[in-house]
Amino acid sequence: MGVQERKEREREQRRHDILESARHMFIQHGIHQVSMEKIAVEAELAKGTLYLYFRNRDELLMALVSEEMEVLVAELERVAASKYRADRKILRGVEAFYTFATEHQLFYQVMTQVNVQSMIDGASSEG
Fold first, then answer.
1. How far apart are CA 34 and CA 38, in angstroms?
2. In this structure, are residues 49 and 40 in contact, taking their beta carbons and an 8 Å threshold?
3. Burial label, 85 (beta-carbon count in 10 A; 0-12, 13-18, 19+)
4. DSSP element (H, E) containing 3
5. How far apart are CA 46 and CA 97, in angstroms?
6. By the 8 A CB rule, do 60 and 19 touch?
7. Which of 6, 97, 107, 110 has the fewest Cβ atoms surrounding its Cβ within 10 A?
8. Per-residue model confidence as pLDDT tens digits over 83-92
C-alpha cells in the first residue's frame, strides 16, 4: 500500500470520527446547543481541522442527515421491492419510517427541530 492510499484512508477515518463525535454531541446536547468548537473538543481536534472537512456546522449536520437518509431509503426500497400487495407495502413503509425515526435520534431531532428548508436554501446559495 502506498503513502497516498494510507493518507486517504486516514482522511476518511478522521472524517468518520468527526461525524461520530458530532452525532454524539447533537444527540446529547441538542442541535442548537452544539458549535464547531464543542465538536472539536469532543473529537479531540483543533477547531480549524474541522473546517478542513466541513465548511460549517450546518454542512456537518447535513452530512450526518445524509448518512441516515441513505439507511432509511435503503429500508424503504427493500419494502417497495417486496412481494406484498400495494396496501401492505404502504403500511410496511410507514412502519419502517416510524421504526427508523425512533431508532435514529439525530434524524428525529433534525426533522422536528430544524428548519431544513433554510439549510437547503443556504447550501444552494453557497454552492
1. 6
2. yes
3. exposed
4. helix 3-29
5. 37
6. yes
7. 6
8. 999 999 999 9
Q: Tell me the one-letter amino acid at 75.
A: E
Q: Provide the grid cell at 28.
A: 446529547
* Per-residue pLDDT tens digits for 46-84: 999 999 999 999 899 999 999 999 999 999 999 999 999
CA angle 79, 85, 90 (to 5 degrees): 50
Question: CA angle, corner 54, sides to 114 and 69, nearest 5?
Answer: 50
Helices (H), 30-115: 36-43, 47-53, 57-81, 86-103, 105-113
Distance of CA 79 to the CA centre of its chain: 22
pLDDT of residue 64: 94
Q: Phi and psi dihedrals of 2, rounded to 5?
A: -85, 170
d(CA 26, CA 108): 11
- Rounded CA separation 105/122 (Å): 24
In the chain, what's the furthest Cα-to-Cα distance?
54
| pLDDT > 60? residue 119 | no
